[in-house]
Amino acid sequence: MQEALILHRPATAATQLVLLFHGVGSSPENLSPLGQALAVHRPQACIISVRSPDASDFGSGWQWFSVQGVTEANRPARVAATMSRFVQTVQHWQQETGLSAAATTLLGFSQGAIMALESTQQSTPLAARVV
Q1: Structure pTM?
Q2: FRET pair for 28, CA 20 to 30 Å: which of 19, 54, 68, 113?
């Protein structure tokens, strides 16, 4: 499982899971301020910023899929090719925290948002909320 940054873990059992997904060429640390702000308003949430699995084509940061030569026509195939890894990542954190899809929020920026939104097309819902 790729690295992640646990931004907030409540002292008692978490009742919510919030997974943050960064954009291409970025890293989990870039979403730390957002995660810390969310923790103030969701103290019972386990908030985790997830690192994308592949090194970015831009030379720094990470990505779910390559954006070199990406077009509107080939983007869906690239997203589909990595969706199983995205699903496994979400399910991993659900198992780690003991929280279900009903208690899960996926929050994505740029490429992270593409993956989170496209995950709503799975036959079994991964999360109750996608931002």
Answers
A1: 0.96
A2: 68
